Automatic annotation (TrEMBL):
PROSITE patterns assigned: CYT_DCMP_DEAMINASES_2
EC number assigned by the record: 1.1.1.193
Domain CMP/dCMP-type deaminase, chain residue ranges per copy: 30-155
Keyword hit for DNA-binding: no
Family annotation (InterPro entries): CMP_dCMP_dom (IPR002125), Cytidine_deaminase-like (IPR016193), DHFR-like_dom_sf (IPR024072), Eubact_RibD (IPR004794), NADAR (IPR012816), RibD_C (IPR011549), RibDG_C (IPR002734), Riboflavin_Biosynth_HTPR (IPR050765)
Identification of the protein by name: 5-amino-6-(5-phosphoribosylamino)uracil reductase
GO biological process, one term: carbohydrate derivative metabolic process
Record field: catalytic activity: 5-amino-6-(5-phospho-D-ribosylamino)uracil + H2O = 5,6-diaminouracil + D-ribose 5-phosphate; 2,5-diamino-6-hydroxy-4-(5-phosphoribosylamino)-pyrimidine + H2O = 2,5,6-triamino-4-hydroxypyrimidine + D-ribose 5-phosphate
Pathway: Cofactor biosynthesis; riboflavin biosynthesis; 5-amino-6-(D-ribitylamino)uracil from GTP: step 3/4
Superkingdom field: Eukaryota
Originating species: Dorcoceras hygrometricum
Enzyme kind, highest EC tier: oxidoreductase
Keywords per UniProt: Glycosidase, Hydrolase, Multifunctional enzyme, NADP, Oxidoreductase
Pfam families from the UniProt entry: NADAR, RibD_C
Amino acid sequence: MVVYAAAVALGPSNFPSSLICRATSSSSLAFDATCINRAAHLADKSAGLTAPHPNFGCVIATADAEQRVVVGEGYLYAQGTTPPEVQAVQDSGDRCRGATAYLNMEPGHCLGDQAAVAALIQAGISRVVIGIRHPLHHLRGKAIRALRSEGLLVDVLREDLQCETVEEALKSCLLVNAPLLYRAACGVPFSVLKYAMTLDGKIAASSGDASWISSKKSRTRVFEMRGRSDAVIVGGNTVRQDNPRLTARHGGGHFPQRIIMSKSLDLPETAYLWDVAEVPTMVATQRGARRSFQNYLASKGVEVVEFEILNPKVVMDYLYDRGCLSILWECGGALAASAISHGVIHKVHAFVAPKIIGGKNAPSPVGELGMVEMSQALELHDVHYEQIGPDMLVSGFLHPVPDLAPPIRSIDEISAIDPTVSPYEASIIFFYKTWDPYGAFSNFSLHPFQMCDENGDFTTWQSVEHYYQAHKFVGVDDPIGKSCFEDIKNAKSPEEAARLGRKMQRQCPDLVRSDWESIKISVMYRALKSKFSTYPNLTSMLLSTAGSVLVEASPHDLFWGGGRDGEGLNYLGRLLMQLRSEFLADSYEPHQNEVQNLS
């Protein structure tokens, strides 16, 4: 048995799963805060694996008159895996009835994705404490209203619970989902500037040599930072000087995309970054730069994206459209200064090594910002100091983490006030990420369905993406191909299935079935039809779009998506519109038969 006071002393990172606390009026708020901290700590375990979706954690505690006991917990491993609320309910068993559930963030609650709310209601949870509301407008408040409509007591930190301890718990909830909050509030991915410098503020010697400023322990921490990011950005000079790999090398399943920003494309023909067998690389450049070198990079499998004017803001806007949530900048001083000046850097990690190198021409971590007085200096908020080996890590935010308060009205709340406002008015309906209003149209939405295999047996597929990626290797007479099929089928999330399928297709194109290009559209259509036929609510959602053009708003997939400027073929949108026509015809045919019978 562990009493509450001991749990507070241990802190959230050591919070025992069997916590027991005497339930008194003076300690109830403190217990709520501690459980929310624990939920946030659990949620942080999925950082880098759920992007661009939130990090969710759930803790369930009994609430009888004598004591409070934590009986279950869970966190979201990746989008498409079991929701933490479902995990915690399963972990708690019969002890859920009358218990309190603690969530670091309001769960997403939309058509086709109501498992989290349903699990809490069906388990008999009587009270739910939520750290922060969902930051996305169309989801904000929906789960809270759904829970309250079923008679559950729902308390939201700061709105319903207020005290100094609660404010600290709220801060932990904001920090664990800071990337999502910045994305929702600012319309750009959350960007972190990381650099290592000597005690006298140099990131390299005057010769350009920078190996190594920081210690091995600090470099290991950088690998962890990369593993929590969707992409890592450097400039052309870093590629020329350091020839970096920019891999996570942390042993996990997530590897961030490497991005090089270079206006002139004055880059070496040989570089570690051009090897995309394990990790993809994208080069952002200015339109028309070195066409021959662009073709060379493309032949290597490197993605080249041209911009009319290349700067950090337009690249961040583009990565936002691609669904990126968190970006790590590991660039030199000139690009770092440009990124700060364009307002896209939100947090700074500075590793300070106890070394002095001097040198008038030795570069510093941030170039010219145009500031001439100390009063103009940018100050960091929520500064944190941590010793890592011999180095000191100084971290802080350039702007406070947005908490999006007061609550932003969702489209449902607006429609309730003004019935003339409808979420289905647009003549063109875009969908892309599963969190979008029409996110259930995405191949990555978690809607399991059954399909008959070549042996006549029915197989359950967790998502359309699982089915599509695995079928690249159906019928391949090779043990590796067969193993890849099984690995994709059993992948923990649609994102993981996509990574496995794309990686194997890049590395071993000979293993992909020879007829894939000619049959991939029909494979996709079979999966879509099975998915939408399995779920009546999805069919209704699809039919509600009648008269509208459906566009998969992927800015980089020019086959299944619509592209950045509408240049894509949008085959996924086309297939959904074809399926919609079939469903409309089916719903119309019985009515026609009734008319004929009456006549």
